Amino acid sequence: MAEGLSGTEAGKEISEHAKHGRGPQAARRRDRIVSIAEAVLLSLVTLAAAWSGYAAAKWNGESSEWLTAALEARTDASRADLDAREDRNFDLSTFEAWFDAYVAGDEHAMGLAARRFRPDFTVAFDAWRATSPDTNPNAPRGPTYMPQYRQPRLAEAKALDEKADDAFARGASADQAADKYVRATVFLASVLFLVGISAHFPVRGARYGLIALGAVVLAAALVQLAQLPRPPA
After folding, report:
1. What is the pTM of this model?
2. 39 to each of 46, 145, 150, 192, 199, how far by Cα in Å?
3. What pLDDT shows up at residue 14?
């Protein structure tokens, strides 16, 4: 007959069983913790990526609007500048006709040429005539050299150019913000990749390392997002 275990041997047997039981139990507990960590990371990454993508789209739209406004203002400025050049050429041609009639002593032709003057040019012409250019050697060379000579379309062209420069700068700034949000989204996508492949590694150490790396990248992306300008309304 087999002899029964002594009390000491029975105690050792129970201790061994307890050790073997605690090992798998601790491993399952660690696996649960890792699974929870993965779920938390995935949740945070999903929310952050959604926000980053939304902000990138908003800034991209803002950039397009400003760049379109800059293009329109630049086009209007070019048109106004062309009109100003045409006005100046017209002023010079009508003044030349008046001056030729003046030299010829043709009062009738002088009157006809003067009636063709633009209102803005007439003001400068009258001011120039008041300086007695016939006898005053210090008189300006012509009406276009007078401070009273105004070209509203030229001033408008300059204002539109400034408006275009401002709109372009705003558009470029918005485009840079969109690019930064896209870069942050790429970082967040890499976190999704790291967490996704971590579950396929049977070695726990590799799994823990991938999750830790994903957490670091996520933290860096969140810091970057916190420093970026908020999307426009």
Report:
1. 0.68
2. 10, 77, 71, 11, 11
3. 53
